[in-house]
Design goal:
Blueprint lengths: L1 H11 L10 E4 L5 H13 L4 E6 L12 H16 L3 E5 L12 H5 L6 E9 L5 E3 L7 E11 L5 E2 L5 E2 L9 E3 L7 E11 L27 H10 L1 H8 L7 E7 L13 E2 L4 H7 L17 H31 L3 E5 L16 E5 L18 H11 L6 E6 L11 H14 L3 E8 L24 H14 L4 E2 L3 E5 L6 H9 L4 E5 H6 L2 E3 L2 E4 L2 E3 L1 E5 L6 H12 L3 E5 L8 E4 L2 E4 L2 H11 L5 E3 L5 E8 L2 E8 L5 E8 L3 E6 L4 E4 L3 E3 L2 E8 L4 E7 L13 E7 L5 E2 L23 E10 L5 E7 L2 E3 L1 E6 L2 E6 L5 E3 L7 E10 L3 H4 L7 E4 L2 E7 L1
Parallel strand pairs: 1-2, 1-16, 2-3, 3-11, 11-13, 14-15, 15-16, 18-19, 18-23, 23-24, 24-26
Antiparallel strand pairs: 4-10, 4-12, 5-9, 6-7, 6-8, 6-10, 17-28, 20-21, 21-22, 25-26, 27-30, 28-29, 29-35, 30-34, 31-32, 31-35, 33-34, 36-46, 37-38, 38-44, 39-43, 39-46, 40-45, 41-42, 41-44
Length: 826
């Protein structure tokens, strides 16, 4: 009982370690006093940390990492430390990481990013070929290939031959074809990619002449220079805060070729041919990185990607990891792809980023496509590598249609989407130092101090802290894992699991090979235990993985393989290993095999459930990802004392429950955009609270009689954009009306429902603030504040800034219908 009380207290008043850590765009003419003012404003709104992010818009008179720049950094970090705030430093001048705002290439031009390009010349009437070389080019291989296919789109791989190139040839080669086929010369050239990054000054953006050159991140010497220029520079100036206020260094989606690089290139660097061949490929296989030649082409490309990934880990991520560890901070950030799970190996705080509305509430985008895997990509990497935190840089360019049209409604959906998947460090993108001029639309919108919800942001901060606490140092309880490659997570297998409320984790094949232990038909890794493995087409996995899976089955484990083309019929390949030709069949078998688990009935495809255990207390996180309320019964195993914790309202109440054999049933309604936590202490005496009596509802129509400040006469409940002169208005308007209410002795509650609102509503009754709502349903309990007889109701509505900043006319204001419902116990 004491443990439950202690955890409840921690939940309601979580530590500052669980704060949101927004990207703070330093994107203007930076002044110390203004920076300090903004920092203190963050702290007043419950934001106890930030990612210090240099951003485009800094005047070119203030150099990146210059003494003047570092003086500002020092002043801000000192002030943050004095307020017990946490700081994550950012390792680049804008992004992607690894180039020190172009300083690496300015210092060492030979460290510019490189790639492999294939040049081809048909041999017909070409007895010799002068390879067109550029300054800095390195010839990797020259080969003779025989084209095949109706449009000569492929090659006959068995005919490929290496053409020796003399050191003094200046790129001149010749070859006598052995037959009349369609032969070509191909040269593989290691060449500068001409890729860039986005810099911090105007004129340094994509495609602009001043865009900083990207560095060769596969070159350890270039990466070492990067560390010296950035990491060491920060440590030199503010090293006294490392390991205390400064908790991490953020590296951001490093790009091996750079942005706007030459087309047709693949990542490469000096000496990489040897690693390409040691991965299991031959020199003759280089051509298959571009052209097709039978079934082994996919395997050759997989081996190439693996070789690049391992080189990237050794040359870039591990040195950054080691430097951070040696300086008592964490490496955090994220790779470029949403499912790049393997590259998270060296992150102390693995991460991902929600961007460009690739996932969203509409159109099943939350569970469809490779981006839908990103939440569990970072969370499951952390789980399997014993890392307590994982991060998501969220909300970047996530508005629907217009840059400033992101709503608090959407933000709440994104937050819950992340939490129920196990993400526990939220890094909102972004808080802007300035929104002046071009900055207004640079990866907009500002999701903090320059947006309409900032006066209420302490509510968001506290919500983020509570849910981050729930998902930290807690162990989720799935018995199912989805086996994945380092660079591919199957969203197709995951989708029916989400819709069926079957919790699972993604498990990397390298971790299965090297870290997992097989125990009595279970896969044990870190704190997780799995007895069912789902996978797509076992042939895509390595031989060592297949052998480990066979051993798992022999010990009594279960494997469900989805394979559309494998010849064996549905059924057992061997006992315990089943092959099915449809995703639905795999999901159905999981349902049949799993023992009773936490289930919500009737089944709702929009409901997500995560069952975690924290210090022996069971926490069931329920998230409504749909657009309507979900009503039904949660059936749980075990007995004990159940409570309902609401992270948004900051309340905890006893749960109405009914006993069943071996467990309990809990009737619940989960509203749109709601996340609830059921806490169960199995060690406590069973406490079942009876279901309350039924109620009848008496509704009162409040659609008429509204007046708005500054508008003459009674106003209709229509969008402001339909009112003369307010087509592009953004701001707050106040609705007022009187209402009569007669007290009923048996009433249980009185609910004001404002209907459709765009988008923030603050309700006052008789001059008293009742509550603020930022998303639908816009319902307010008035029962403790209504007077018998006449009451004055006031509603302040604030609409989107998109109307002003994007010059659009999105629906705005209170559209209704508005009702007052008295719930009477019967």
């Amino acid at each position: 009982m004491m443990k439950l009380e202690s955890l409840r207290t921690q939940f309601l008043t979580p530590d500052g370690a669980f704060t949101p850590m927004p990207f703070w765009f330093w994107n203007g003419n930076l002044e110390q006093e203004e920076l300090l003012r903004q920092l203190r404003d963050f702290r007043d709104k419950g934001v106890e940390g930030f990612v210090l992010h240099p951003r485009i818009g800094i005047p070119d008179t203030l150099g990146y990492l210059s003494d003047e720049f570092m003086a500002l950094v020092e002043a801000i970090v000192d002030e943050a430390a004095s307020m017990n705030m946490r700081v994550i430093l950012y390792d680049e001048g804008m992004y992607p990481s690894g180039s020190a705002n172009g300083e690496i290439v300015r210092c060492k031009p030979e460290y510019a990013s490189r790639g492999l390009i294939m040049l081809e010349q048909p041999m017909k009437n070409t007895p010799e070929w002068i390879i067109p070389l550029e300054e800095g080019d390195r010839i990797v291989s020259v080969q003779a290939i025989s084209r095949t296919g109706p449009k000569l789109e492929g090659i006959e791989g068995s005919k490929t031959q290496i053409i020796e190139v003399a050191d003094d040839s200046c790129g001149i080669v010749s070859f006598a074809p052995p037959d009349e086929g369609a032969w070509s010369y191909v040269a593989f050239i290691d060449r500068y990619s001409l890729g860039t990054i986005r810099g911090i000054h105007y004129g340094q953006d994509d495609g602009e002449p001043g865009a900083p050159r990207a560095a060769d991140l596969l070159n350890p010497e270039a990466v070492q220079l990067f560390i010296e220029l950035t990491h060491e520079r920060y440590y030199e100036r503010i090293g006294r805060h490392f390991g205390s206020s400064i908790i991490a260094m953020f590296t951001d989606e490093p790009d091996l070729l750079g942005r706007k690089h030459r087309k047709g290139m693949l990542p490469w660097t000096a000496g990489f041919l040897e690693e390409f061949m040691s991965s299991g490929n031959r020199e003759e296989d280089l051509v298959l990185l571009w052209l097709e030649s039978g079934d082994n082409t996919a395997e050759i490309r997989r081996c190439y990607r693996k070789a690049v990934r391992h080189r990237m880990e050794r040359s870039f991520y591990k040195p950054l990891h080691d430097w951070c560890e040696a300086h008592s901070i964490a490496l955090t950030g994220h790779p470029a792809a949403s499912d790049d799970m393997g590259l998270l190996r060296y992150f102390h705080i693995p991460g991902q980023d929600i961007v460009w509305r690739w996932i969203a509430p509409e159109g099943d985008l939350g569970i469809t496509g490779k981006h839908s895997t990103m939440g569990k990509c970072s969370a499951d990497s952390a789980r399997h590598r014993n890392k307590s935190r994982n991060l998501n840089e969220c909300f970047g360019v996530c508005a629907k249609g217009n840059s400033w049209a992101l709503t608090a409604d959407d933000m709440k959906w994104y937050l819950d989407w992340l939490f129920v998947r196990g993400v526990n460090l939220i890094s909102p993108h972004a808080f802007y130092y300035s929104i002046e001029g071009e900055r207004l639309h640079e990866r907009a919108p500002d999701v903090g101090p320059n947006n309409i919800w900032w006066p209420e942001y302490d509510r968001l901060s506290q919500y983020i802290k509570r849910m981050s606490w729930v998902m930290t140092e807690s162990i989720n309880q799935p018995e199912v894992c989805v086996l994945c490659r380092a660079d591919h997570l199957s969203w197709e297998l995951a989708r029916p699991l989400y819709e069926g409320q079957i919790e699972f984790n993604y498990l990397e094949e390298e971790l299965l090979q090297n870290e997992a232990v097989l125990e009595n038909g279970m896969i044990a890794i870190a704190n997780q235990r799995y007895r069912i493995v789902l996978l797509e087409d076992v042939e895509q996995f390595e031989l060592d993985t297949r052998e480990k899976l066979k051993e798992f089955v022999c010990q009594g484990g279960r494997i469900l393989e989805h394979n559309r083309v494998t010849a064996p019929p549905v059924g057992c390949v061997e006992p315990g290993w089943e092959v099915h030709h449809s995703i639905e069949a795999v999901a159905d078998r999981v349902e049949q095999i799993l023992p009773h688990r936490a289930e919500f009935k009737p089944l709702s495809p929009g409901l997500r459930i995560s069952h975690v255990v924290k210090e022996g207390i069971h926490l069931y996180v329920l998230v409504n990802e749909g657009e309507t309320a979900i009503k039904g019964t949660l059936s749980m195993n075990g007995e004990g004392k159940p409570e309902l914790w609401d992270a948004w309202s900051g309340t905890s109440i006893p749960v109405q429950a009914e006993a069943r054999n071996g467990g309990m049933n809990i009737p619940l309604t989960i509203e749109r955009r709601q996340c609830l936590v059921i806490a169960l202490d199995p060690a406590a005496a069973v406490t079942l609270n009876p279901v309350i009596s039924k109620q009848e509802a008496v509704a009162q129509d409040l659609n008429d009689g509204w007046e708005v400040d500054g508008v003459e006469g009674e106003v209709p409940l229509t969008s402001w954009t339909e009112w003369e002169g307010r087509e592009h208005f953004s701001g707050t308007m106040t609705y007022t009306r009187e209402l009569e209410w007669n007290r009923t002795a048996s009433y249980a509650d009185v609910i004001l429902d404002l209907g459709e609102i765009h988008e923030m509503a603050k309700v006052f009754l008789n001059g008293r603030l009742i509550d603020v709502k930022l998303w639908s349903p816009y319902r307010f309990s008035l029962s403790d504040h209504l007077l018998t007889g006449k009451n004055v109701l006031k509603v302040e509505v604030t609409n989107t800034l998109a109307n002003r900043y994007d010059r659009v006319s999105l629906p705005s204001g209170m559209l209704g219908p508005v009702t007052l419902t008295t719930c009477i116990e019967v």
